[in-house]
Structures are given as structure tokens and as C-alpha cells.
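lol forgot to send this yesterday, sorry. C-alpha cells for the thing we talked abt
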């Protein structure tokens, strides 16, 4: 068992860079645990060398190697709003307008709703009744009735709006 701590290695196949880790043994099973998270979409080679010995001191007949590829790295990039309509600070917006936001990536449509996408009057914060629809990368707030003339509105998207990876 003690011989496995140096006989069991893990490295990237591209550059052969060794991965730091710890080897634990339980019965007939040796486990290599990396000290850091492995890179996504990367091929690795695991090797148990002939330095590994059984209880009687017998070595493996030859080095044993196997390859595996890790899954793609998880998406941890938060989405951004890439454009809005009407644009920020617009004046003379028609009273029958909707408010739309286009995102930098695919969103989870169920998170784009009247709780996460609101339209309010800027002065009193009165919430405008309406519905939210999604088409492609764009969410649109459709007011239930015409907007008031000469009124400043504020559209807000909250962090409850999530991309497909949950960011």
C-alpha cells in the first residue's frame, strides 16, 4: 500500500504536466485525489508504475496507464444585457410601447417574468401591470394598458433572471 503513494501519478496528456495530489488506499482500491480541480475538456493520463508492490513485495509486470477526458468546464459567466428598447434615456416613446432587453447568452425563459422584469413609474415607483414574453435572446415587457404621456418609466431586470447555466 505504501508503494502506491509514489507509483500512482496523474498528468495532462498535452504537456505531460504532473498533477499534484494524494493517493489513498482502501483494500484493493487506490484513489488519486487531485489537490486542485481538474481543468475542463482536458485529457489526462493516469499511471500506476512498477514501483507499486503487493504485500509480498512483487511488482506489477509493467506500468498500467489509462486515459480519460474531463467534462466541459461549467459556465460561471453571468449574462449581461446587450441592448434595450427603448434605449436608456429615450424621449418621445410612443404610449403603446413595450420594453425589451436582449441578453448576451441564452436565458432560462421561466426566470424571465413579471417578478424579475418590471416596469415602474420613476417618480412614484408605481408598478405597471403587464406580461413578459421571450423570443430568442430577448425578453419583452408588454404593458397591460397604454403608458401615460409625459411620464418617466424605469425598467428593471433583477438577479432572479438566470441564464441556461443558472448564473
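and heres what i got for the seq, position by position
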Amino acid at each position: 500500500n505504501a508503494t502506491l503513494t509514489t507509483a500512482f501519478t496523474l498528468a495532462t496528456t498535452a504537456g505531460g504536466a504532473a498533477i499534484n495530489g494524494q493517493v489513498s488506499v482502501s483494500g484493493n482500491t487506490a484513489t488519486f485525489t487531485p489537490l486542485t480541480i481538474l481543468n475542463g475538456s482536458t485529457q489526462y493520463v493516469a499511471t500506476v508504475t512498477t514501483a507499486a508492490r503487493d504485500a509480498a513485495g512483487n511488482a506489477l509486470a509493467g506500468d498500467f496507464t489509462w486515459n480519460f477526458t474531463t467534462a466541459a468546464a461549467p459556465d460561471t459567466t453571468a449574462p449581461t444585457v446587450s441592448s434595450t428598447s427603448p434605449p436608456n434615456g429615450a424621449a418621445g416613446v410612443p404610449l403603446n410601447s413595450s420594453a425589451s432587453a436582449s441578453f448576451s447568452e441564452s436565458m432560462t425563459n421561466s426566470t424571465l417574468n413579471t417578478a424579475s422584469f418590471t416596469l415602474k413609474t420613476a417618480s412614484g415607483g408605481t408598478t405597471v401591470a403587464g406580461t413578459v414574453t421571450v423570443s430568442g435572446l430577448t425578453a419583452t415587457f408588454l404593458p397591460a394598458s397604454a403608458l401615460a404621456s409625459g411620464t418617466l418609466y424605469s425598467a428593471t431586470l433583477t438577479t432572479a433572471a438566470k441564464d441556461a447555466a443558472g448564473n
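The chain is about 0% helix and 35% strand. anyway ping me if u want another try
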